[in-house]
């Protein structure tokens, strides 16, 4: 996966509440079609589920974003791991070249 693609998938708490209040479609915003249909069919769990989501929606956004940020961090670590050996080899070769050159200056 691409880092830019993952960053575009991050969700906003404000947008989630807009979907919640105006469309009742906050689960669609997270890509959870089954839960959204169930939410609509039960009229928000007869109000209980609706009330619960009202207070926990920001936490759901944070959890969703944390998963994506963890994937981004893993990609960055893989990228650093791939590039690190090259840097180490370059430094080793530079140090070896410095050591191989004899010092011709005699006092």
Describe the structure.
This protein has about 110 residues and is an all-alpha fold. It has one domain (about 5-100). It is about 80% helix and about 0% strand. The protein contains 6 helices and no strands. It has helices spanning about 5-10, 15-25, 25-30, 35-40, 45, 50-100. Helix 2 (about 15-25) runs antiparallel to helix 6 (about 50-100). The longest helix is centred in the last third of the chain and has 53 residues, at about 50-100. It is rod-shaped, with a radius of gyration of 26 Å. The mean pLDDT is about 85.
* Poorly predicted sequence stretches spanning 5 or more consecutive residues: none
Distance between the termini: 61 Å
Q: What is the total tally of β strands?
A: 0
Helix percentage range: over 70%
What is the subunit arrangement here? single chain
Structural class: mainly alpha
Largest sheet: none
Brief account:
The protein is mainly alpha-helical and 107 residues long.
Strand and helix map with partners:
Elements: H1 3-8, H2 13-23, H3 26-29, H4 33-41, H5 43-46, H6 48-100
Helix pairs in contact: 2-6
